[in-house]
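Changelog note: in this version the structure field was regenerated for every chain. One regenerated record is shown below for reference.
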Amino acid sequence: MTYELDHRRYALPFRTPLRTAHGRWSVREGLLLRLRTEEGATGYGEVAPIPGFGRETLELDEAALIRIGPRPTAETLAAGASGLDCLAGALARALRACSSATPDPAPARDLIPVASLLPAGRDVLAVIPGRVELGFRAFKWKVGAGDPADELSLLDDVLAALPSGSKLRLDANGAWDRRQSERWLERCAERPIEHVEQPVSPENRAAVDLLLGLAGDYPTPIALDESLVGQSEIETWLDRGWPGVYVIKPGLLADPRTVLDRLHRARARVVFSSCLETAVGARDSLGWAFSWPGEARALGFGVWPLFQDARFDGPFLAPFWRWPDVTRLDPEPLWTALN
C-alpha cells in the first residue's frame, strides 16, 4: 500500500519559560505529520525530540521525512526512520490510525492521578496554593536550576506548603555531583519525598556506578530519566537490575509496546512523563500510560496550560484525568492551525 505523507514544523512559545538544570527553555519546536491511505483513512503523529536528550534532533527527523518522500510504503517509512526513535514512533502511531489491524492499546483503567509540575526556585511558593486549591496532591519540583544550598534550604518551605499526605517528587535533571546528591538524599531520607529524579547526569563517566551506589545507600527511591534515552538504554538498566523508578516518555520511543511489555515482565516501577509536546503527541503518550497494567503512579503530565497558543495544549489542568479526557484530544484542528 502507498500512503500520502505530509509534515508541518512548529515553533510554539511556552506561556512561561521552563527553568531546569539545562537552562531556560522558551520555545517548543517539533513536527506534526499526517499519513493518509488512498481510501481516505488518516493518522497523525508528533515528532518532538528534546534538545540535549540523546542524539536525535529535529533537523535529522525533518531531513529523513524529506528523503522518505510524499508517497511512501510502510516499508519505506520503517527504513527511512531507522535510528530515529521519535520519528519512528510518530510514524507508527499514524500507521495504527490508518489500519484497523493494528489498534491503539486498550485502556487498563479509567482514571489516573496527575502530578503538577512546579517551577524552579522561590517561584514555587507562589504557585503551590493555586494547585492545592485545584485538588492536586502529587507534585514535581524542578531543582538543580539554582544554587544547591539555596534550593536545599527551600525544601522544607515547599513541604510545609503542601497538604498532609501529598507526594513530592524532585527532578534535578542531572545537575548534581556525588557530594550534592548525597546531601539531598540525606535530607530526603527524613522527609516525605516520593523519589529524586536523575540526580546525576548520564554524561558523567561514573554515572552508572554512582547511581547504583546512591540507590543502594539511601532509602528515598531514585528515578532515571535522562539515562533512559531509548529502548537500548532501558534494556541495559533492566539487565543491571535497577532498583528504582523508570521515567518513561513514550514520545521518545520507537516501539513503546515492546518496551512496556519488557518493563511489566520485570515488575518495574514506572512513571509516565510528558515531553512537553502538543496534544497530538500527548494523546498517544497518554494512551500508553492508561494501558499500563502495572501500578498507576501519578502521571508526569501536569504541565498544562503550557503554550501561549492554548489550542495546542493537552488535557486541562486537573489532579485526575479520565480516559474520555484523553480520547477527546483531536489532532486535526492542530494540523489545520499550522497551515
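Spot check on this record: The chain is about 35% helix and 25% strand. The longest strand covers residues 4-20.
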